[in-house]
Structure formats: C-alpha cells, structure tokens
Amino acid sequence: MMETLLIYLLIPALKIGVVVLVLSGAIAYLTLLERKVIAHIQVRLGPMRVGWHGLLQPIADGLKFLAKEDIVPARADALIFTLGPIISLIPAFLVFSVVPFGPPDMLQGILSKALGFLLPPESVEQVVTNSIASGGFVTDLNIGLLFILSVSSVGILGVILGGWASNSKYPMLGALRASAQMVSYEVALGFSIIGVLLIARSLSLVQIVEQQQASGIWYFAVQPVAAVLFFICGLAETNRLPFDMPEAETELVGGFHTEYSGFRFSLYFMAEYANMITIAGLMTTLFFGGWLQPFPNVSWLWFLGVIPPFMWFSIKVFLILYGFIWIRGTLPRFRFDQLMQYGWKIFLPVALANVIVSACLVWLFTLRG
Amino acid sequence: MGIDERAFQQNVVTTTVDSVVNWARKSSLWPMTFGLACCAIEMMAVGASRFDMDRFGAGIFRPSPRQSDLIIIAGTVTLKMAEVIQVLYEQMPDPKWVISMGACSSVGGPFDTYATLQGVDKVIPVDVYIPGCPPRPEALLYGVMRLQDKIDQMSILDDKRLVVSS
Amino acid sequence: MEDKKKPKSTSEPEKPSESTKASSGVESADEVVGASAEGTGNESKEDSVPRKPQKPTGPAGATSAKKNPPKRRPIKKGPTYEDLENDEQVQFLRERFGDDLDSAQSFLGQKILTINPASLFDALSFLREELDFDYLIDLTALDYQGEEKRWCLVYHLYSYSSGHFLRIKSRICEGDVPASVTPIWKVADWLEREIYDMFGIEFSGHPELKRILLPADWHGHPLRKDYDIKLQDQSWVKKHLKIRKIPG
Amino acid sequence: MSRETILDTRELEINMGPQHPSTHGVLRVKLFLDGERVQDCECVIGYLHRGVEKISENRSYIKCVPYYDRTDYIAAVSNVYGYVLGVEKMMGIEVPEKARYIRIMMTEFNRISSHLLWLATHALDIGAMTVFLYCFREREEILKLFEALFGARLTTHAFRIGGLWKDFPAGFEEAARKFIKEFPDRIDEYEELLTNNRIWIDRTKNIGIISAEEAINFGLSGPPLRGSGVDYDLRKIRPYGGYEEFDFEVPVGNNGDTYDRYIIRLAEMRQCCRIIEQALDGLPEGPVRGKAPKIVKPPVGEYYSGIEGPRGELGYYIVSDGSAFPFRVRIRPPTFISLQALRRLVRGHLVADVVAIIGTLDIVLGEIDR
After folding, report:
1. From its phi and psi, is residue D229 left (phi > 0), alpha (psi between -120 and 50) or beta?
2. Alpha-carbon span C74 to C46, nearest angstrom
C-alpha cells in the first residue's frame, strides 16, 4: 500500500513540484540569458546593477509585475481576457510531464538512500525499480509524442483568445497572424517528427532516447533534414525572430498582448519562454539523444560519462536555446505572407518528402534484416 | 470608518515589504518606446552601446503603454500631441512614472509659440525633470537614477504616489 | 498694358504704380533697384525700403526696418534685382502670355517671373508641358499685410531635362481662390494644404483641402502677419486638453 | 435586416501612431486594410509642429540659426549649412577657404551620422536589432567629433554666418582620419549582416517601387529619387560652398525599390568618406571666421538656397525686407514632401511593408512638421 502510494502519488508529486520550480527558474533566467547574450552580441553589457551582473534582474522583473496594476480594458471580454494567458501558460508546463531529463533509473540511488530509513528493503526495491518513481521524468506515456503535439496546440488558443478578447485592432491582427502561423507550422513540425517515429517505432519519448542509445547514434545523424525542419518550425511555433509575426513590435506594437499589463502580461511572457524550453527539450530528446552523452556506445569516450545524464540534457537544451537567442540577435523579420509561403511551399513539401524517403529506407532496411 | 487609522501606519512588516517592492520597481523600470523630437535621438543613444540603459534594468523599451512603467517625454510637446500624451499616460498601469527630458518638455524650451505646450507638467504629473537641449545621455541616466531614489521612498500604504521629500 | 514691357528697362517713374498692382512688395522694391542698377544706385533703393514696414513682423522688425535704411545702405552695395526681358525663355513666355506675365527679373542669378493670377494655372501647366519644368521644388506663400494684394504665391520649379531653375510668383488678393496645381504636380497636394493651414488661402480643385499641421478644429492661421506668435487657441485647449487654460 | 452574410468583408481601419515604435517619432498613419493588405492610407502629421517658420519671422537672422538645428535634429549641421549659405550669399560675405573646407567636411560627417541613424532604425523596423546597435556605435564616434568641434552632440549650432565658431581643437584631424580609415570596414560589417541576407532581400526588394517619372512628380529628392534612377544631386547640379572642387560619385539605383534606396545610402556613406578625405588632405591654412557684420541685415531681396541634405533637397527661401529680421524664411523640407508619396507607395502592400516603406523614406518628424 505504502509502496503504491509512493510510486504513484508522492514521488511523482514531488517530481512535478521540482519540475515546475526548476522550469520557472529556468524561464526567469532564460530572460536574463537572452538579455545578456543579445547585449553582448550588440556590444553592450546588459543588466549589470541588479545583483552581480544582473543576476537578480528576473526576480525584480517578476516582483514588479506582481505589484503592478492589472488593467482590463473597458471594452474587453473580462473572463476570456483573464483566461487567455492561463490557457497559454499551462500547456507549456504540461508538455514537460513527458519530456525525459534522464534515464529511467536516474533516481534509483537517491531514492534507495532516502527511503532506506523509512521502509523495509524489499519495499524500497519495489519502489526503486519502478521507473515511474525512479525515472528522470514525470511520467512515461506510451503516446508521449502525440500528447505533446495535442497539448501544445492548445497553447495557441490562449493567444487567439487573448487577442480576440482585448477587443482592439492590433491584438486582433496579432491573434490572426498567430493562429495562421502556428497552425501552418504545426503541420510541418508534425511531419518532421514522423521520420523519427519511423525509425524509433515508438511514441514514447523515453523509448526514443533508448533507441538512440541502442543504435549508438543520435537521430540527428539519421534525420538531418527533419532536425533542421524541426528547429525552424520550432522557431515559428514559439514566435521567435525571424518568425515573431504575432507580436512584431515594430509593426503591431505588441501583437496579441498589446493590451495586457502587469501579471497577465508576465504570464504570456513566461509562456513564450516556456515554449522555447519545451521545443529545445523536445529537440534534444528527438534528435540529440536526450540525456545521452555524445556517441553513447564508443567505449573510449567513457570519461564523458563523468557528467551525469541530467547535465547532458541541460547542456544540450542550453545550447539550442543559445541558438534561438543568437538567431534573434542576427536576423531580420520575415513578412507575414513570406512566412506562410515558406511554411506551405517549402517546409511542408520537404517534410513530406523526408517522410516518404525515410519510410522507403526503413522499409528497405527492415526487409533485409 | 471605524478603523483605527494607526493600524495602517508604518510598521516592521510594511517597511520590509516596501523595501522589497521598491527594490523590484526601481530595478525594473521599463520605459515606453516613445520619442517626440531631438531628445528622442539622445534617448535612443542611451539605449545603445556606449551608454546602455539596460545596465540599470531599464533597457527593455516596451512599445505598448500597458506594459511600461516609465514614460520619458523626450522632446517638444505640442498642443496636438498633449492630447495624445494624456491618453498614453492614462493607459499605463499604476505605479507609473514620468521623466520630462529636455527643456522643451519641461518648460517649452526655445519654442514659445502658438503650437507648443509650455511644459508637459501642465497635462501630466512629472517626477523628474532633466535640463538640457537636448540633455546629454549621462544626464538621462542620472535622471533615471534620481527616479530610482524617488521610488525608494514609496510605500505600499499610499495608494497614490509619494511626493518626494526635500 | 503694352507699355509694361518697355518701362521696365527704360522709364523709371511708372514702376511703383505698376509694381503695387502686379508684383510683390519685395519685388516692387527691387524692381526699382533693378532699374537703378542701370541708372544711379542707392536713392531708389532707399525709397523702396520705407514702403515695406507696413508688415508688422512683431515690434522689433518694424522698428529696425524704419531705423535702418538711411544709415547703412550706402556703405555696401548689395545684390539687386536685374531685368530679364532679354532672356530667351522669358521672351518665349511673353509671346505666349503677353501681359499676363507681369514681370521677369533675376536676383542673385535666380530667375523670377511674376504672373497674373488669372492665367497662373495655364502658365504653370504650360511650363510643365512645353518647357518641361517637371519638378515642383517648393510652393509657399508670403503675407504682405496691408497691401491690396495681400498674398504672394511662390512656386519654385526645376526642369530635369534642361536644368533650369525658376521662381514663379503671383500676387493675389485676400479672398481670392487660386486654382490648385495638384493636377500638374502631385507634390502640390500637401504644400497647398500647408498654405491653407498657415495662411488661410484656399485653392480650388484641391482633392482634400483641410488643415495639415494644426489640429483640424483650430482657429486662426498662424503664418499671417497679424497672428501673434504666442496666440494659442484657448477654445481648442479647453476642449481637448483636460486643463482649463494654459497659463502664461 | 440587411443582406449581410458571413462572407461579407469590411475594411479594417487601423491607426499607427503617433505613439508607435516604427513611425520614427510622432507620425500617425491611418491604414485601411483588407486583411493584412493595405488599401489606402492617410498620414496625419503636425504632432511636432512647433512653428519654426513663425519663429524665424520673430528672431534676428543670427538667432534663427539654432532653430534650424532643431527642425531636423538628425542632420542639424546640414540644416544650418543651408541657411547660413543663403544669408551669406545675400549679404555677399566671403567665407575663408579653411572654413569652407571644414564646413563641407562636417556636413559630410553629418550625412554619415544621419544615414547611420537611418540604417539603424530601418533595420530595427524590419527586425534586425543588432545592426541598430552597431550603427549607434559608429555614430557615437562622429558625435564625439561634433562635440570636439562644436561643443554639442546633437543640436550643434555648427556654423556661424561668415564662417565657423572656432578652429579645430588639437587632435581633431587625427581622430577624423582614424574614423574615415576604419569606417568603410564597418560598412562592410553592416553589409555582411544585411545586403546578401535572404530575409533582408525578401523584405526590401520590390517593396515600394516608384518609377522615375512618378518620383519626380511626387517631388521626391535625395536617395528616394536617386533610387529610381534620377541622377539629381544638388552637390553636382548646383554646386554650393565649393563642392565642385571635390571628386565624388553620385550613386544611382535603377529599380526604385526599398533595397535600391538602401544600397544607395550605403554607397553614399562611402562617398562621404572620400569627400572628407579630400577635404582633410587639401585643408588650407588660415582663419575660419570671415568678416561678417555684428547685425546681419541682408539687402531687400529673396534667395532660395538649396543644398543636398542627407534626406534630399533642403531649401531655405529667405525673403528679406532689409531689416534685421527675416520677412519670411520658408524651409523646403525634403521629407515633408517625400512623405506624401507614402500613400502611393504602400497601396497594395502588407502592413509589414508599411513599416519598411516609412523607414526607407527616412523621415524626420521635426522637419516634416517644423
């Protein structure tokens, strides 16, 4: 009884708590990272005075938003106006429930030590060997990928509703752009994943990583086109430059969140960065071997194993996020129609072709062996 | 009212909260992307590499008044524009601050004519005046720092903004 | 008015009367000067100046103008208006427009034609079509308050093909409605709106003649000489700004 | 009930500005949209109308000068130059040789700084924010030079009637030489970020095309006109202040689109460096202040002094009645006139292009509204 409670309730709850906390912290410091990196790209220093090299800046920003007046415009739809940012933020967090940070036995050591004081050894054994408790993830859904795709599309609703409920023209245009952009890039994004699915033969993210371990190679090497596509579509999905149409500051003032202020605005802000982390985490998992070290099966690279799996995951996510920021500091913005053209006329056909080619190859190889 | 007014006087709790909230507010002054004339160019220079207002946490220029804490009136305020500035000011969420940058927005500057408003403080309250035509970027930075000092004296007990003492 | 062509170069006494009729105050003054270049120099210039101070530029402007002429003038010989009747283009225009071309002069090498407002539009479209003055550089107005023909419209033209630069002037009375030149040059659109805004001169045939710089419901035209520089439209202020009156 | 169906569409009227990040100040544009496509637009200006022309009539000739600094605050040096030239011409004042050279040099520096600011904001509008800060970095260097010579960064009151305020300070020449030596490399840096960038080309090529004829009819001047292939540069056509002694080219485009105008401005910056170099090399010795009377009273007359400002033809039509106060100073504002073309240029484009087109006209509201 106690074991079941531990496995299915207490430990997952703890993990969820930790994930939410870590993720919130990561979001906060991602904003700082972005400011610092872009500042240095632009020959500036970025935040320097608030804490050592601006380390307390995100905390100050967050607190300020909390203490700010929260305006609901007179002609806005108050209920939906409030719901918008929440709908947008929750899926961003929810997605992380299936993204694995580490192998299924990541927490075994810690758990067995911690539970050793409380429980008899056989119960500890029972808890520890169950991957739901000891895995480096909140849960391992066998349809994980599907779950992610469906949940993350809900996030768009938050943007659309927020833009619509503001009852103002710029947010309206921003919301329209957002819906069109996200829907069209969602398609290409989905297709780019299929190549991976074909090879891994699983929708579970944990198994996808394990397959990469088994084959000894990251899927980036097998599916380079899909990886690049995923990255680009990921930029578009998260409304990052050069695809930041929905909130294009110099065109639509703030896009869908023009009318938002105070804490509600900060929720949108957080959702955007949470989505960035999600996409980076997904990309790491699908194409860059998740928690695996580079070349997991090459024995003379054993020293790379000194760095724990969780750290490998973080490093990869960090690097991808850095790439996001770097691109923001370098490229101009697309125009809306160009963006749609690229989406439908280039990325989608390429993704489709990639699926067909990979399917043929997989079929050929499996036929042989 | 029936409530003892002393209940809302300064005490340990409120002063601590004050200091935390004030610290957050002064460390994260997001100005509005809003320029009027010559001073706006200097304001841009303050945001750029050599001066870099972002160092003080005040570098994120928000285009929407709803998301900004600070409006820098940088340039001559004409009567036609004064009307707009009033609306913009009202659109900003509390607490909000105003810096009047340069002679024109402070007192009308050299443009004592039919079309210009002789000082933006006639239409919206101003926290910090910066002299100069246009002020040097350093002057604007100093103005922002003075505003931070002013924010430090705020208290959450006051609904309205505090008048700076001395 | 046949005599108009000749008097310019030969006879002096007729000039003042003619100039008040046709050309601007400034020009009239300098027409005399232009003539005097041929004759003797400075007296005519002096008598030209005192006619000016009708315009109240503000107190200082008027007084200094009054004080100034007798003392300094003789020391330095400034540039003068010169007659241009012998110019090829002018003669060509003269043939076409006859008396409607009131005068043709140059000042510091810049050609100035004064055209009767009645045929102003024809003349300008002729210049555009026949002489290929395809570029309207600028269009503005001058206010000679107190004179019968209060306004002077000033067009600056340039021809890309020939490289000629030309100034066209036309004196009109208060209340006159000259024809808009927007059909000839699109650039005139805002320029005419600005003149309407600043001087209150209306143009007929303009697509949308409304205020451009000042608020739409502003009263008064600030570049008129009788408009005080500090005069703010208090009724506008009361209506639009939530303050009662702008002090000071 | 009317026959409205769900498929009926209505024109969306959207208001850009006067507080909008990419209207470069307080321009207000009313856009009439069909979806994202612009059907029509209307500019509302005058939010910065300060009455400079009225002020000019109420100040003496010398006291007018600082106001022209503030009409076009980005190209303050050029603005003062045009007016000062006009007054000197009317008065017949000879400017010393050295002052002439320094004037041309500083005007060209000003052209560079103005183009840099244009490039910065234009790139920012299109979303390339790093170029913005790079440009400001170089611009600061020029402002340092201004500060050394004129004593101010932005509103410099650069030239006096009759010459300059004072000669070069020590070390100025070396600093100027250093700048023009390094600057072409910096332009290469911007070009690296933009010129061949696919997104930049997509956003600027074939955007806001205007033919040469139309450009002339709309009264465009400066880079927008030259972008359409009209070789019109007052420095060549009606040389003023001694420009005929300098050897430089006038870059001309052929498509008349936003990209061409961008290329032209970059090329112009390189030409500016050439002119400055020649001015530094040929700098004569001597005084920098000519003989000008204490009270400036041009003789009765009128003069149109046009110069090639960074934004196009900048003219001062000065009418004197012989007194110490101008009878009228009409400023021919280059971008007031070119902004009219906006309506023609944006029609049929998307909202995002409006931003690019406003940027490419290089407007300065101080000069539009005066």
Report:
1. left
2. 9
Are the C-beta atoms of residues D158 and D106 closer than 8 Å to each other?
Answer: yes
Task: Give the gap in angstroms from C-alpha C221 to the nearest C-alpha of chain B.
Answer: 10
Give D352's contacts in chain A (Cβ within 8 Å): 248, 251, 333, 335-336
- Pairwise CA distance, residues B21 & B3, whole Å: 26
**One-letter amino acid of C30:** D
What is the enclosing helix (H) or strand (E) of A150? helix A144-165
Give residue-wise pLDDT tens across range D233-247: 888 888 888 888 888
User: Does pLDDT of C74 surpass 80?
Assistant: no
Contact B93 A69 (CB under 8 A): yes
- Please report the pLDDT score of residue C218 as a whole number: 85
Per-residue pLDDT at C52? 39
Note whether A91 and A164 are within 8 A (CB): no
CB pairs under 8 A between A and B: 101
CB < 8 Å to C142, chain D: 319, 327-328
Residues of C in contact with B83 (CB under 8 A): 240-241
Nearest to A332 among D133, D134, D200 (CB): D200
Q: Which residues of B touch D366 (CB under 8 A)?
A: 37-38
Q: Is D22 on the interface with A (CB under 8 A)?
A: yes
How many angstroms away from the CA of D194 is the closest CA of chain A? 8
Chain A: give the shortest CA distance to residue B53, in Å.
8
| C229 → closest Cβ in B79, B113, B123 | B113
Residue C241 to chain B, least CA–CA distance (Å): 6
> With respect to CATH, is domain D63-333 assigned 1.10.645.10?
yes
Least CA distance to D31: which residue of chain A?
Answer: A169
* Residue-wise pLDDT tens digits, C113-158: 888 888 888 888 888 887 788 888 888 888 888 888 888 888 888 8
Identify which of B34, B81, B88 has the shortest CB distance to residue D48: B81
ipTM above 0.85, yes or no: no
Tell me the pTM.
Answer: 0.81
Please compute the mean of the pLDDT values over residues A320-344 and round it to a whole number: 83
Closest CA to D262 of D120, D89, D94, D54: D120
What is the spatial distance between Cα D133 and Cα B48, in angstroms, rounded to a whole number?
6
With an 8 Å Cβ cutoff, is B50 touching chain D?
A: yes
pLDDT of residue C32: 37
A43, with CB counted inside 10 A (0-12, 13-18, 19+), is middle
Three-state DSSP class for residue A128 = helix
Q: pLDDT at residue D281 above 70?
A: yes
Size of interface B-C (CB pairs under 8 A): 41
Tokens linked to A82 = 């409030």
Structure token digits, residue A45: 């220093």
On average, the pLDDT of chain C sits at 69
**% helix / strand / coil in chain B, to the nearest 5?**
45, 10, 45
On average, the pLDDT of chain B sits at 80
From chain C, pick out residues whose CB is under 8 angstroms from the CB of B80: 214-215
> In the prediction, which pLDDT does A167 show?
81
List C152's β-bridge partners, or say none. C142, C171
CA closest to B113 among chain C residues: C230
**Cα atoms in the 13 Å half-sphere on the side-chain side of A187:** 16
Candidate from D123, D127, D355 with C-beta closest to A241: D127
Q: Which of B136-140, C149-153, D230-234, D288-292 has the lowest mean pLDDT?
A: D288-292
8 Å CB contact between A268 and A175: no
Residues facing residue C125 across a β-bridge: none
Q: How far is CA A52 from the centre of its chain?
A: 28
Ordered by where they begin, the domains of chain C are 10-24+42-69 (no CATH), 82-239 (3.30.460.80)
CA-CA distance, B103 to B109, in Å (whole number)?
5
